Every structure is written in C-alpha cells, then in structure tokens.
C-alpha cells in the first residue's frame, strides 16, 4: 500500500525539476531568436500607418521601450531565478491576481507569436514553390513545421536552444550580407532613398499609429526570463544574454529599415498583403544570390522564433500549473527529458488553429496587445521590488542604473502605444481587455481556493521593508 502511494509523483513528474544547462549564448539565442523574425516581417505594417520616416521614429521609440524592459527584467529575473519569468516576479513582489494575469499575458503573447511565425513559414514555402513552377497549399507545411518544433522542445531544452542559437545567428548574418550587398558606402549605386523617401504622409498622428507595429522589431526579448530556472549562472547569463540581445536587435532594426526603404516605395512596404519585405528587397536588387539568401534567412528567422515561443509559452503555463494557478496536471516534468511536456503539447493545437484561420496582422495584434499588458506591469513590479527590498537588503545578480527613470519611461511609452493600437484595432483591444477581466473573475472566485500561498515563495529573502 505504501509503495502504491509513493508511485504517482514519480510517474507524473511533479517531483522533478528543470535542468540547469544553459549559458549566455542560449539566453541570447532564445531572446533574439524569438524576435528576429520581426525584422523580416511584421514591422512593415507600421510603414503603412506612418510612412517610412514615421516607422523609423516608431522603431527607435520602441527600442527605448524595450531597453527599459531589458534593464528592469535583468535586475529582477537575475534575482528571482525561477521558470515563468515575469509571472514568477509578480507572485513574489505584488500578489496572486497580478501573477495570474501576467502568466496569461505571457502565454498569449508567445502562443500568438508562434502562430504568426509558422503561418509565415508555410506561406514562404508556398511562395518558393510557386517561383519554381509548383502551386501547392501552405497549410500542410505550417502544421509540419510546428510538429517538428514541438518534438524538438519535447526532447530537451539544451538541444532546442542550441539549435535556436545556430539558426538565429545564421538569419542575422543574412541581414548583414544584404546590407553589404546594397553598397551602403555608395548611397546612389543601389539605394534610392533620395527618390523614395517622403515626409510624414499622415503627420505625427501617423507616427503614433506606427508605434503599434514598431514594437514588433523587439517583441519577445523579455522571453529570456523564461530560461531563469535553467541557466547555470542567472546573475551573469540573464543580463548578458538579454542586453547583448537588445543591442543585436537595435542594429538589425536599423539595417532593415535602411535597406528596405532605400529600395521599395513606402506604399508597397506598408501594404497589408506584403509578407516578407526583406526578401522582396533582395529580389529588387536583381541578385539571385541575395534573393535565395534572404529567402533562407526569412524562413530561418520564422522557425527560430516559433521554436523559442514554444519554449517560453510552455514554461509560463507549466509554472502556473506547478503553483496551482491552473490544474496541477500542467505542472509535470517529463521523467526522461526533464521538459514541461504536457504544457508543450497542450498549447500546440491552439497555435495551429490561429495560424490556419486568422489573418497575419490580427494574430500579430493579439500578440502585441498581450505583450503591452505585460510591459505595463513591469514598472509597477520594479517600484514594488525596490520599495520592499531596497538595495543592500538582498543579493541581486544585477542592479540596473537610473531607477526610477526607466520605470516611468516604460509606463509612459506603454500608455502611448495602447492609444496607437486603439487607433487601428480598437475592437480587438476592447475584446482582449474583456477576456482578461473575465479570466480574473474566474481566478478570484474559483481557482484561487486551490492555490497554496506559502509554497509559491521560493526565494530565501528577509521580510519586506515595513513588515
């Protein structure tokens, strides 16, 4: 009888932990891998909102927003080194209801981003086949891509993020090669900025509207926090991987805008049916080498992003199950591969459904809205963290400078971007807010009774200041 009672935890995986096998390059590969696809597609919808210069301004304003995100995350996550990222932060610094919502924000951000990635991957394969004279549907390739990446994530995090590092580095290299190929040292030889660029076609209101898609250049860099429980040295790997990833993305975003807007009219770049602007930019050069290279780079970036999104969404969902915010069935670790396998398998069909049936711009908007809600929480989290545990009271892996300036800046930029989203997708914004309100009511009046409050606090910290 005692043997039977002892058996279930081992078989379900609830008594097992995730492996600490990752280093800074894996953190970089996870963060940049998720985001780099934004340089190959999606950012261009901002050009349609505010013109070429409007999109550039939005790009750098969004870069400032994400620099604040990276600074705040680097400090708190290197101190709260647990799977779940911002969710784990919220349950330690603010409370259960905030933590529940932040967990949902992250899961939907990465699941919707995953859906957009695999949709793009499937459609790229269709485009490539059409240019070879074959007319094939894109849907089977979308499903196949997600199935292979799900299997890879199921088998282990080290192999998953090692692959992500390799293909992300390869995709980033294609952007650099394209930049060299258009001869930036001789601006009139290939690039035509003087002929193609115009003033702000819709004024400064268009610039604000462009912020909606300006954040697509960087959306997901905060996903590095999801690896906190699996890195060997959180205090070193997380800040180094996150901040170097942010620098990489700023460089890639600047190159992307410069090359695309120097070869394509802004009206074409911002067209709703424009899928892959960097690939089309390479085609305009007339170089078969650059065309093939950017086709491969775009495909690799979509695959790398989808791969990282599966990793991050599953760990957020797994963490909520482990803490009983969701059914504990999701909090299991595979006995052999040490991965949150049930969460991985549960979220995959959701991504498939959105990828197959929802237009790309709408999926991107779902992801952006959930991400924005998460970023709005971060200033509150930072203020609470520094107030409850001032510098010197606990050991931090990293201390970000200039507090509270980044927190105030992030809050202001988030509010501005919400207004930008409302200008173009007001109904989706209101629908998403209604969804999160209903989910919060469900958690407060039903699910909270199952939560074990004492078991959530895994950090050996002193009592907060004032308690």
TrEMBL record:
Annotated TM spans: 25-45, 51-72, 93-116, 136-154, 161-182, 202-219, 240-266, 286-310, 344-360, 366-385, 405-423, 429-446
All residue ranges annotated as the Amino acid permease/ SLC12A domain in the record: 33-446
Gene3D superfamilies named in the record: Amino acid/polyamine transporter I
Membrane topology of the entry: Multi-pass membrane protein
Claim: Lipid biosynthesis is one of the keywords in the record: no
Chief site of localization: membrane
Pfam families, sorted: AA_permease
Keywords from the UniProt entry: Membrane, Transmembrane, Transmembrane helix
InterPro entries, A to Z: AA-permease/SLC12A_dom, APC_superfamily
Cellular component GO terms held in the UniProt record: membrane
Any Gene Ontology biological process: transmembrane transport
Highest taxon of the lineage: Bacteria
Compartmental location: Membrane
KW NADP (keyword) present: no
Cross-referenced PANTHER family: AMINO ACID TRANSPORTER-RELATED, MEMBRANE PROTEIN
UniProt protein name: Ethanolamine permease
Species the sequence originates in: Methylovirgula ligni
């Amino acid at each position: 009888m005692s043997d039977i009672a002892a058996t279930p935890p081992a078989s379900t995986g609830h008594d097992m932990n995730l492996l600490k096998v990752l280093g800074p390059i894996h953190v970089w590969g996870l963060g940049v891998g998720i985001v780099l696809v934004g340089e190959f597609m999606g950012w261009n919808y901002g050009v349609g909102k505010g013109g070429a210069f409007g999109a550039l301004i939005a790009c750098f304003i969004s870069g400032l927003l994400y620099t604040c995100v990276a600074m705040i995350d680097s400090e708190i996550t290197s101190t709260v080194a647990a799977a779940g990222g911002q969710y784990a932060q919220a349950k330690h610094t603010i409370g259960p209801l905030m933590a529940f919502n932040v967990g949902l924000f992250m899961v939907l951000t990465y699941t919707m981003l995953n859906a957009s990635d695999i949709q793009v991957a499937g459609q790229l394969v269709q485009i490539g086949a059409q240019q070879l004279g074959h007319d094939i549907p894109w849907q089977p390739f979308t499903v196949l891509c997600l199935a292979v990446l799900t299997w890879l994530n199921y088998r282990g995090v080290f192999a998953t993020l090692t692959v992500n590092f390799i293909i992300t580095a390869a995709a980033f290299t294609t952007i650099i090669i394209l930049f060299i190929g258009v001869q930036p040292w001789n601006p009139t030889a290939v690039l035509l900025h003087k002929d193609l660029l115009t003033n702000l076609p819709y004024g400064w209101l268009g610039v604000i509207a462009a912020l909606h898609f300006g954040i697509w250049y960087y959306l997901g860099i905060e996903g590095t926090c999801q690896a906190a429980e699996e890195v060997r040295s959180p205090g070193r790997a997380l800040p180094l991987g996150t901040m170097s990833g942010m620098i990489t993305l700023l460089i890639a975003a600047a190159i992307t805008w410069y090359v695309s807007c120097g070869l394509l009219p802004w009206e074409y770049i911002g067209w709703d049916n424009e899928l892959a602007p960097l690939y089309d930019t390479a085609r305009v050069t007339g170089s078969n080498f650059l065309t093939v290279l950017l086709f491969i780079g775009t495909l690799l970036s979509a695959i790398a992003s989808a791969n990282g999104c599966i990793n991050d969404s599953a760990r957020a969902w797994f963490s909520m199950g482990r803490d009983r915010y969701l059914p504990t069935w999701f909090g299991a670790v595979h006995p052999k591969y040490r991965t949150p396998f049930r969460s991985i398998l549960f979220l995959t069909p959701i991504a498939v459904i959105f990828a197959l049936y929802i237009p790309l711009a709408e999926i991107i908007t779902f992801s952006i809205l959930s991400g924005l809600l998460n970023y709005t929480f971060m200033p509150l989290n930072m203020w609470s963290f520094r107030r409850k545990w001032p510098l010197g009271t606990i050991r931090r892996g990293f201390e970000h400078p200039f507090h509270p300036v980044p927190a105030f800046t992030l809050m202001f930029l988030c509010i501005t971007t919400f207004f930008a989203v409302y200008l173009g997708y007001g109904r989706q914004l209101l629908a998403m807010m209604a969804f999160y309100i209903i989910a919060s009511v469900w958690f407060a009046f039903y699910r909270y009774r199952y939560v074990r409050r004492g078991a959530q606090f895994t950090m050996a910290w002193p009592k907060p200041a004032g308690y």
